[in-house]
Amino acid sequence: MLAGLITVGPLLVTWLVFSWVFETLAHAGLPLVHFFGSIDQPWLESLFAVLLTLIVLYGVGRVTSLVVGRQAFNIFEAILERLPVVAKVYTSVRQLIETMMAKKEAGQRVVLIDFPIEGQKSIGFLTRTLVDAETGRELAAVLLPNAINPTSAFLQVLPLDRVTETDLTMEQAMSMLMTGGAVAPETIRFTPAVGTPK
Hints:
- This protein has helices at 2-36, 42-65, 67-80, 84-101, 170-178; strands spanning 109-114, 121-131, 138-145, 153-159, 164-165.
- α1 crosses α2 (42-65).
- The chain is 51% helix and 17% strand.
- The chain has 5 helices and 5 strands; from the N terminus they run ααααβββββα.
- It is an alpha+beta fold.
- It folds into 2 domains: 2-80, no CATH class; 103-178, SH3 type barrels (Roll), CATH 2.30.30.
């Protein structure tokens, strides 16, 4: 039974993710399909909706990469930023995506911090550093995604010297989180480097 679970488990998770992506793209493209006319076969309608959605996403990406498209996108963003609630949500999500897509050299890195209690480490992403206005002490903003469901997370602000640097890549960290630690490298830097203040 365990061998069967190990074999079928990854396939099931892959299928669930693929189904969710397909359904989301199909749902987004259905208005376009209905604009061009109705299709009798539901599966063909969904497939056509996915193709149209992908074409639109590709077209939007190409247009915004051009100078005129970039200017139009900047105007669109400026309009969104004037809407009170929408501005907060849109700006936060955009900054989060830009941070998650940033290269490690730009400051984004995988770290460990003591959470929820001292001595128990949690995997996090150091998203930026800050400075304490009163003491001048360097602080770290660390995003702690939840295991299995990394779409929700905690944001911890703590002294930078309490952060343990790791040599994990973003891909390795996400694999550990998505699988509850089942997929992980053989070794990990758990103890701070010698000479690092605690």
